[in-house]
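Question (not urgent): is this output format expected?
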Amino acid sequence: MPVNALISSLPLAEGSTHAHTGAWVASVLRSRIAEGHLLPGAKLSEQALAEALGVSRNTLREAFAVLDHELIITRIPNRGVFVASPGVAGVKEIYGVRRMIEPAALLWGPNLNTEALVSIVIEARAALAAGDIEAMADANQCFHEELVRATGNQHLQELMTRVLAQMRLVFHAMSDAPDFHSHYVELNGSLVELLQAGRREDAANELRGYLDRAEAELLAHLDEEN
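Got this back:
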């Protein structure tokens, strides 16, 4: 989505319980990036965003500072603020976090919702059959978000939102490799089958190996580009 179109769709802060706060603005922008509405390299207009969100530029700068710390945006002196383009170091950091959180959520999460996971896999398979790469990637992202939701821990869920925003930026680098997402649809389906059979430990081990493979594939692709 073009930045101008994205800005026009942003919710105004007025009336929000978090109105006019840097944290709220950071949350809105982070969600838009995680949903794929802003692509790597997109410039974020300070004036347009401040007006659309009904916040001051100082508040917006507070949000930019948060997102910059999270490696979701990049601030370039005399040029502006841009959506980040994660490289090799970023991919390694992201997958290091995911390997610690997601298998543990499968193994010990008290709120594991297998029905929700089944529904997501069905959506992903339908997208795969239709050749809709974007919808397939969205479903895969939702799958991993649902895994972390099983922890019932708000802090971990917020961390996963940040990680998914970074992942969305990484996946953009794979836009010329549409098959990247497709084989993970069935891998997610296999995880669900293990969970339905009560084999949480096997599912956690399978997921860890799956994340290792995904990281290696992404790093190899980035290496080829360089």
